[in-house]
Design goal:
The protein is mainly α. The longest helix has 59 residues. 66% of the residues lie in helices and 0% in strands. Helix 6 runs antiparallel to helix 7 and helix 7 runs antiparallel to helix 8. The chain is built from 10 helices and no strands. The termini are far apart.
């Protein structure tokens, strides 16, 4: 019985030792396999990095164009995009018929052809009424002593452009020559506010003296109060200085 028990224990010991040896062998094989996998991963990473590096180097190198093989047609190169054309200057606007008519009126005015100037100014107003052309026509009528027509043209110009010093001045001149001295003074004062001018000062002085003479009904002669004669009344409109000169504000047609 004792021998039988000892034999069983011996078998168990041998089986346990064999099992432990197998476990150690399996563990060693597993570790070896893991080391192999890790080594393989490291190798793959290294090769992948090498490929990436070579790809970057190839991209950095200029592309080498090989000469065509003899006898083969050369492929057509794509045409380079056309350079953008430089921006062209905007074309100058063409003058309107009204502007052309006004220019003709100015031309006749400069030639002292006042009836023809009035005709062309009227054509321009018919096409496109403007304060400038009304004011120009008023000046041409002043040249012809057409005081009422000049007054009407200036009034229309003031309606269209209340800031026109020329229109106020010329209406003041027309009203002064019509004997409406009070209204003439108001117009000339307004012109002086908008555009101070020596010529306007002289006209305003004349209008005030005329009003004083009319109100006083004195026996003084007209010369003593500088009542202007027809020639004197035309003094400011006969002045043909350049438009930049102070007196030209009321004596030259507007361009």
């Amino acid at each position: 019985s004792t021998q039988s028990t000892w034999g069983q224990n011996s078998v168990q010991i041998r089986m346990s030792a064999s099992l432990q040896m197998q476990i150690r062998n399996n563990a060693a094989a597993t570790n070896e396999a893991l080391r192999g996998v890790m080594s393989w991963e490291d190798e793959m990473k290294r090769k992948d990095e090498e490929l990436r590096k070579k790809s970057r180097e190839r991209s950095a190198r200029p592309t080498r164009v090989l000469p065509p093989i003899r006898g083969t047609p050369v492929p057509a190169q794509p045409a380079a995009p056309a350079a953008a054309a430089p921006p062209t200057a905007a074309a100058a606007p063409q003058p309107s018929e009204a502007d052309l008519a006004k220019a003709q009126g100015n031309k006749h005015f400069q030639n002292k052809e006042y009836p023809q100037a009035i005709k062309w100014y009227s054509d321009s107003i018919r096409l496109a009424p403007s304060a400038v052309v009304y004011c120009n026509r008023a000046l041409a009528r002043i040249k012809l002593n057409q005081w009422e027509g000049a007054e009407c043209d200036c009034s229309r110009a003031i309606e269209l452009d209340p800031s026109s010093a020329k229109a106020w001045h010329r209406r003041g001149v027309a009203r002064k020559n019509l004997g409406n001295f009070t209204e003439a003074i108001l117009d000339l004062e307004e012109s002086q506010k908008l555009q101070p001018d020596e010529t306007t000062d002289l006209e305003l002085e004349d209008a005030k003296r005329l009003l004083s003479w009319k109100n006083s009904k004195s026996v003084q002669s007209p010369e003593s109060v500088r009542v202007p004669t027809g020639r004197q009344r035309m003094r400011i409109v006969d002045d043909e200085d350049e438009p930049s000169a102070p007196a030209a504000a009321a004596t030259s047609p507007s361009p």
